[in-house]
Write a structure and sequence with these properties.
single chain; about 230 residues; alpha/beta; six-stranded mixed β-sheet; four-stranded mixed β-sheet; 11 helices; 10 strands; about 15% strand; globular
Length: about 230
Amino acid sequence: MPTLDRQDTVFVLDLGDGENRFHPDWIAAVGSALDEVEKADGPRALVTAATGKFYSNGLDLDWLFAHADRHVDYVVSVHGLFARLLTLPVVTVAALQGHTFAAGAMFSLAHDVRVMRADRGFWCLPEADINIPFTPGMSALIQARLALAPRSAHEAMVTARRYGGHDALAAGIVDHAVDEDAVRATTVEIAAAQAGKAGDTLRTIKSRLYAPVLAALRDTDNPLGD
């Protein structure tokens, strides 16, 4: 399960050492950690990281198939997490040390900055291969965060391409590709340099910058776009 630590002005949220799929309990734990970051005073920033082979492998499909009657509520909760992170009143940096797939990749896009391991691990949106369409909220998030690289957004969403670190950097998906042992240190350094920006003004800036995305993510009447 996720754990939260603090290194001076930087909160480090370790998502876990497994596949870090979006089980409802995992979503709740991440939400509680974000509560703590929000309630803290003074300069602060957030790094999310993981331990092991995966950053996050996305939706917990086993849980979802076993609880099909809760499909809509589950998607709403995932959308809510994306919206929460997208508007968090601190600078957020994702440390992608391992595979970052599907909803895990979308979660990474909700951060302000992404640092990826250069030599191993993939960033991928496999929905076209696994026959799960993107919801309107997910599509809006991906397109907005890859607005400067629309060709990459199209390729990632339509072809389910797996991007290694250097390819993801070239495609504009991540901001830095570094050696494995530098991933977390680089994210902490970036986050610390931006810690003074924390506060309501930053939340307002993000909320207005991504207003159409947030409207789609917060649509509880038709979150699946049916």
